[in-house]
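To assess whether the prediction recovers the assembly geometry, we first specified each molecular entity separately, as shown.
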Amino acid sequence: MSAKRLTIRDIAQMTGVSYATVSRALSGSAGVSDQTRKRILSTCNKLGYTANYMARSLVARKSKLIGFIVGSIDNPYMGQLACQVELSARQKGYNLILCNSMHQEEHEAELFSLLLGRQVDGVIIIPTSSKSYGALEKFFEQIPTVFIGENLRDAPKSYVAVDNYRGTMLGTEYLISLGHRSIVYIGYRSESVTHQLRVGGYTQACKDHGLETTVIDNRESASSIEQGYILAKKYFSRYLSHTAIVTATDTTALGVMKAADEAGIVIPRDISIVGFDNISYSMLPRINLTTIEQPFNTMAASAVDMLIRTIEDPAMGYSHIVLSPTLIKRGTCRPVE
Amino acid sequence: MSAKRLTIRDIAQMTGVSYATVSRALSGSAGVSDQTRKRILSTCNKLGYTANYMARSLVARKSKLIGFIVGSIDNPYMGQLACQVELSARQKGYNLILCNSMHQEEHEAELFSLLLGRQVDGVIIIPTSSKSYGALEKFFEQIPTVFIGENLRDAPKSYVAVDNYRGTMLGTEYLISLGHRSIVYIGYRSESVTHQLRVGGYTQACKDHGLETTVIDNRESASSIEQGYILAKKYFSRYLSHTAIVTATDTTALGVMKAADEAGIVIPRDISIVGFDNISYSMLPRINLTTIEQPFNTMAASAVDMLIRTIEDPAMGYSHIVLSPTLIKRGTCRPVE
DNA sequence: CTGAAAGCGCTAACAG
DNA sequence: CTGTTAGCGCTTTCAG
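The predicted structure of the complete assembly is given in tokenized form:
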């Protein structure tokens, strides 16, 4: 096992040149004859030599490493983003150190320090809530950071998010266009700006059409199927008047659907429902959820681009990228007679 | 941005000691008076100093970094494993570099070299197929590696997997106990040993009870909902005789269910189905898939343990951990009259 | 075009 | 108990 890895000196000796020359040949910098370069390169991969990034990073003072903090990678929304983030980053020569915060703000801060110690050149974070921002502020001047998913409003920090307000507005108006006059919002997490905006879009759309609003809060630190289920179960046991539901997230919607099924409420016959996120599971057969799509690939690519631009030019300011959501019509909504 | 990070010398100067003393104080090694240690530690976190892992790793010749190669992290099966792997690794002082191979063996090899250059102390891989093993063999003597998920039979390399043979056997026998006499297997990927074992368990169970077998192959390099759908669609358009389906994976089952729904085939009334993996979405309301569970948490924790043990004691041999699967009875199977 | 030497931030002997 | 001195493997001046 690990027969002491080869160093630049070893291959210098083999080739009969100084190790400085080897370094030059490998890093592609000028000042080496084509002949020696070829000779060096060939012995390198004959012996399977791979340069030591650690040493290289130490002198270069940059690691080409990006810290990536997510609530938990088994959440499909984060998984989809993570996949694209990793791919774009790698394509640009960066690798990702993955960290799960388990949706806890204290952990996010600890993880940030850890990542700082790891000498990452920047961090991309899918924050648990907007509160994350405040707690993390002290790190921002130490290291380029970009947020994904959470809308930080006018905070002086880079983020890429979807237009959440417009998203729920789109969803709510679709429901209204179908004839619904009594719509409830389920799963509002008040400490999240994303959720504030989502509930805002719903409220505005209702107001615009002279409709009443009802909002059911989620007091947990994350949205999940379980939470949606719990919330909806309680809801179904008390209210009966609404003909449609706007949910905070697709996972919430999934939980709501479960509760509806158990209560013998048929979707969309008895009640219509629209989700938010368009996680891959929303398109499943039996689910077939009408929802608002977040453009994952664009979000991930933009975040990586933004971060790397800031890393390479520290004088760069911040940017806010707010992408357009799309309504995906599937099978959970129907016109009201 | 990044006001040149503090070094050990900076804080040595501030405290009025030599930087070696600071190093000792930080690494907790003996040979520093409690008083000076406290003084050093306090200035350290007053100034927000974090030790440079790169430099530390360079001299220690270990990075406390683990490379983690997955097919693609947005696959729920891999996401669930990844989450646990990261958590266990971090708890033991290791961090993860995440890489998506996009289910391509060539990429796996490239990723391995890259990770080697990154000086990871070991790698955990969820291989695309058993072919991965051969192509990667040349790396194994260079770095501790453990495989998750794929059963490598008697290969001289560490892996943790579920007893796939026993899994489908369990599933098939359950179906048989329900009275099914005509069962088809959908989604066999012949280049994967995991799949060979799964189809083996199915075949054996059928043989044991004197039943015929029918196997539908998946010629793609990965299982997915889409593949399951395509396979099932073709299947439903030709066969009609089976009363039950054993699927290679839950994602396959999901695709099969979609095709069934579209074809007007009602599950479980017209046909029963059992999946494999118990990914989180199988328990969804409308899905409620009867399936074989893989113990994700145990698998992840064992893999990390095994790897770290090998890292810390290079003389360690390899181990094969084959965990027991469990049948999760849900709503997609019913007794045949 | 190539070699020698200094140093990135840290740890680990070895002295004092 | 603390300071000094070599490096870890590499890049990068600066000479030749």
